Structures are given as C-alpha cells and as structure tokens.
C-alpha cells in the first residue's frame, strides 16, 4: 500500500527543518524534501551571531546540523529529490518528484528565496568572505571598515544606514541617477555623514584573495572603469548587495496567491487559500527574513498542519 504522509515539507532551510522538528515531535509521519544542499541560505554563513542562544563561534552549517539532528531524533524522514509538480487539490496531495510520486495529507511550502546577484566575477567566490546579502546578519563584522552597498531601493538605503552603525564609511552605488526609494528614506540617507553616493554605476568585478580587498566599478554613461581598493591599513572591505530577492515560487505560481513580487500570501497561521497547504519562511510575504522568523514560521505551520490532519480524522 502506498504510504501517505501526514505532512510533506518542501525545503530544508531553517523554516523547513523547524517544521519537520515540530511535526515529527507531534507524532506526525513527516517527510522533508530538498533538491539541493540542506540548510538554504544560512548554510553559506560563516558566523551566526544574532540567532537567540547561538553559542560562541556558531556557524551556519553547525546550526543547520543541529536542526537536522533534532528533526531526525523525533522521526522526521529526509529525502533528496527535486519536486517537478504539485497536485494540491483534494484531501490527499500529490508531490511529483524526479524520484516518483509522494502522497501527503498536508504540505508545507518552505522553498525559500534567493538574493538577486550582481553576476560579476569574484562575487560567487567571495560570498561569505566579504560579500554579503544581509546587513542584520553581517554588518557587525565590518566594524571600522569601508563598505560598498549596491542597490537603489528602500532596502538598500535602509540597510546602508544600518551598516553605518558599524562601518567607518559606506558608499552606495546605484545604476541610475536617482533612487527609486521613498523620498523620506533618500533624504535621511543623504544627511548621514558616513554615507557617500556613486550614481550611474555598477560593479564590474569584485577583487580579493580569500577576502574582499577591492571592487572595480563601471560608469554606465561613460564606460570608464575604476578600481577601488581597501585602505592598506585595513586590508579588506565589505560588499553588500541589495538588488532584490527572488522567491522560489515557480512550482506554485498558478496554484496559490502571490503578491506582486512573487511571495506567497498566507494568514497568521501560515495557511494559504488551499486547505492543508501552508507556507513558511522566506517564501512568504513578511517584513523580516531572518533565521529566527523562519524557524517561528516553520513551528506555526507544523502546529497548524497537525490540527488540520487531526480534523480530517474526526
């Protein structure tokens, strides 16, 4: 007889692993699916200093490993598989994967989101080594160093102002001659004595061996390039990229409601408009995308999935 899980969780970042822990601990038959590496974005983070209870020198991989251990201790199963189609109508949901069809009474969507990249040489190699996509996570590491911020929206300017609490100087590089951010935010940023601006420009390459040591900029109007290196006394600098995120919602684009940016719309209980289908973590509409909010989402989604499945048996 084909197995029908109480819940299948798609994605094994902090939201998915937290959901797996809570679901399995509630004695639900639980399967966590992941097509790529376990842990999501945090698996590439060298140090986690802002997750409550993090021990000294905690890393993304070490935190993920503990989450996996906890989920498995309570009986959650894990499978490496790529989901190719979702059939979410009806009481029993079907998850089509490259390893066969899977059945579940409830589904938690936790595929996350990925930062939009600059797509320049050196970016990939130096991510986590001076290149960051999260000021809340990493700004403190650049205390008294020079930082370059790429982007022109509300997030870029707000994060740049946050980074000035730590960095000695922040330069915002924008590809246009005017910001698309709210006027009030632009005005506040321009009044910040630690912030400078470079317009009509973008990164051509990021320079460094082991850590970011410089950046080459290109002026889009003149075509001229300029290499800016870190202060010799510092030896390194920071690069923060805020040019948007891409939610991993391709599988559900025509199945659940999304906002204009492609994020899944849920209620406070993580429920989508489809009964028995929940969303958790960076994939859903929310004001803060951090590990701590992802794990909270996962816990809520699992508890609500448990209530939904219990109600099916009544």
Q: What's this model, at a glance?
A:
Helices cover 24% and strands 26% of the residues. It has 314 residues and is of the alpha/beta class. The strands form four sheets. Strands 1, 2, 3, 4, 5, 6 and 17 form a seven-stranded mixed β-sheet that branches. A five-stranded parallel β-sheet has the order 8-15-9-10-11.
Q: Mean pLDDT, rounded to whole units? A: 93
Total discrete domains: 2
CATH topology label of the largest domain: FAD/NAD(P)-binding domain
List how many beta strands DSSP finds: 17
Shape: elongated
Fraction in helix:
10-25%
**Helix/strand/pairing class, anyone?**
alpha/beta
Q: Your description of this structure?
A:
With 314 residues, the chain is of the alpha/beta class. It folds into 2 domains: 180 residues, FAD/NAD(P)-binding domain (3-Layer(bba) Sandwich), CATH 3.50.50; 125 residues, FAD/NAD(P)-binding domain. It is 24% helix and 26% strand. The chain contains 7 helices and 17 strands. Strands 1, 2, 3, 4, 5, 6 and 17 form a 7-stranded mixed sheet that branches. It has a 5-stranded parallel sheet with strand order 8-15-9-10-11. Helix 2 links the parallel strand 2 and strand 3. The longest helix has 23 residues. The two termini are 23 Å apart. The model has no long low-confidence stretch (mean pLDDT 93).
């Amino acid at each position: 007889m084909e197995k029908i899980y109480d819940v299948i969780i798609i994605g094994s970042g902090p939201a998915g692993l937290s959901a797996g822990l809570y679901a399995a601990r509630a004695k639900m038959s639980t399967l966590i699916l992941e097509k790529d590496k376990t842990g999501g974005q945090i698996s590439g983070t060298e140090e986690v200093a802002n997750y409550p209870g993090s021990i000294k020198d905690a890393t993304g991989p070490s935190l993920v490993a503990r989450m996996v251990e906890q989920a498995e201790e309570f009986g959650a199963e894990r499978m490496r598989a790529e989901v190719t189609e979702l059939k979410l109508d009806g009481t029993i949901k079907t998850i089509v994967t490259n390893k066969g069809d899977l059945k579940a009474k409830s589904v938690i969507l936790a595929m996350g989101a990925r930062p939009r990249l600059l797509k320049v040489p050196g970016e990939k190699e130096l991510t986590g080594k001076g290149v960051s996509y999260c000021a809340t996570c990493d700004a403190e590491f650049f205390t008294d160093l020079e930082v370059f911020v790429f982007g022109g929206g509300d997030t870029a300017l707000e994060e740049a102002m946050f980074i000035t609490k730590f960095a000695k100087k922040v330069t915002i590089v924008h590809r246009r001659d005017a910001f698309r951010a709210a006027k009030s935010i632009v005005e506040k940023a321009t009044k910040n004595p630690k912030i400078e601006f470079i317009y009509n420009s973008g990164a051509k390459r990021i320079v460094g061996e082991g850590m970011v040591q410089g950046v080459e900029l290109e002026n889009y109007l003149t075509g001229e390039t300029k290499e800016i290196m870190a202060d010799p006394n510092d030896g390194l600098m920071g690069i923060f990229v805020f040019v948007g995120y891409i939610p991993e919602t391709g599988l559900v684009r025509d199945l659940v409601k999304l906002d204009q940016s492609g994020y899944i719309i849920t209620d406070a209980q993580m429920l989508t408009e489809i009964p028995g289908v929940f969303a958790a973590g960076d994939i859903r509409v929310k004001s803060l995308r951090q590990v701590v909010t992802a794990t909270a989402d996962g816990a809520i989604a699992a508890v609500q999935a448990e209530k939904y499945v219990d109600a099916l048996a009544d």
